[in-house]
Amino acid sequence: MYSDTSLSQTDTIGPYPAEAVTRTEAIGSHPTVLGDIYRDDTNIAIWERELPMTVRNAVSALIKEKPHYQASMNVTPDNVRESLEESLDLVVHQSLINDIELLVNMFCCLFDLKRAGLRLTVIDKAMCPRFHTDKVPCRLVTTYQNVATEWLPHNVADQSKLGRGSDGKLDSESGLYNSEAEIRQLNCFDVALLKGESWEGNEEAGLVHRSPAHDPDQCRLLLTLDFAD
Predict the structure, then answer these.
(1) Which of 27, 43, 109, 154 is the most buried if burial means most Cβ atoms within 10 Å?
(2) pLDDT for 3
(3) Structural domain range at position 170
(4) pLDDT, tens digit, for every residue of 195-214?
(5) What is the count of structural domains for the chain?
(6) Which stretches of the chain are assigned E, i.e. beta strand?
(7) Cα-based distances in Å from 120 to 30, 48, 221
(8) pLDDT digits (tens), the chain, 229 positions
(9) Given CA atoms 177, 179, 180, 186 in this order, what sign does their dihedral have?
(10) How many Cα atoms occupy the beta-carbon half-sphere of 81 within 13 Å?
(11) How far apart are CA 60 and CA 103, in angstroms?
């Protein structure tokens, strides 16, 4: 089951006129919800999940042993395990490697890709603290520890206030959104597909998102997957 509050292309939302493009979210507790990213009116699909303690322990061990760990590589479903094993201890981090291998397989299958661009990073600061959209077709993100990605529903975000349109003002002052209550946030362990500006038919409707505020008491472990073909 998932909630999908689909909106008609002729509905009037917030400050936008009736003819404005609308986008919504698909959220569910089963991985099949990720397939809803193919819907024209959806720019984020979220698989809400929990992870077993074996994976959480592997994540904690990685951050403790390698507090500055960064990996960036192009992988296939067939070689992702071998690629990760070159920099991660198979015994200590096997459960984490298993989960990442699963996500790579799902991502490549869903988008019919031979390869994916994988980034796995221990983060001790906000990487992208300003709201923005990505110039990519679609990106998978999941946070294995600490706070996760923040995002804005399309109908509340005035994208003309992004980047230079902010006139140098903070997101909270630029008019990008009306209230802090409008900001949504993924949960730790959620797997999300963020539709970007390069998805055909999604120009000027990419998901608006940003890194969460940094928690000085705890590092994040972030995984992203991108199209590599």
Answers:
(1) 43
(2) 32
(3) 2-227
(4) 999 999 999 999 999 998 87
(5) 1
(6) 2-3, 24-28, 42-47, 70-75, 116-123, 138-145, 150-152, 184-185, 191-195, 208-210, 220-227
(7) 24, 20, 7
(8) 333 333 223 233 334 343 467 899 999 999 999 999 999 999 999 999 999 999 999 999 999 999 999 999 999 999 999 999 999 998 899 999 999 999 999 999 999 999 999 999 999 876 678 999 999 999 999 999 999 999 999 999 998 999 888 888 888 899 899 999 999 999 999 999 999 999 999 999 999 999 988 777 788 999 999 999 7
(9) negative
(10) 11
(11) 19
pTM value is 0.88
- Beta strand pairing call for 42-47 and 24-28: parallel
Residue 202: C-alpha distances to residues 22, 138, 166, 210 (Å): 10, 10, 22, 19
Report the alpha-carbon distance of residue 197 to residue 150 in Å, rounded. 18
Q: What is the CATH number of the domain that holds 158?
A: 2.60.120
Question: Any idea of the CA torsion for 60, 61, 66, 72, to the nearest 10 degrees?
Answer: -70
Give the number of C-alpha atoms closer than 13 A to the C-alpha of residue 166, restricted to the C-beta side: 15
CA dihedral 212, 214, 218, 224 (to 10 degrees): 40
Please give the sequence-ordered ranges of beta strands (E in DSSP) within 85-210, or none if there are none: 116-123, 138-145, 150-152, 184-185, 191-195, 208-210
- Sorted by sequence, the CB contacts under 8 Å of residue 154 that are 6+ apart come out as 21, 22, 23, 24, 43, 205, 207, 208
* Token digits of residue 135: 């110039």
Backbone torsions φ then ψ of 110, nearest 5 degrees = -60, -40
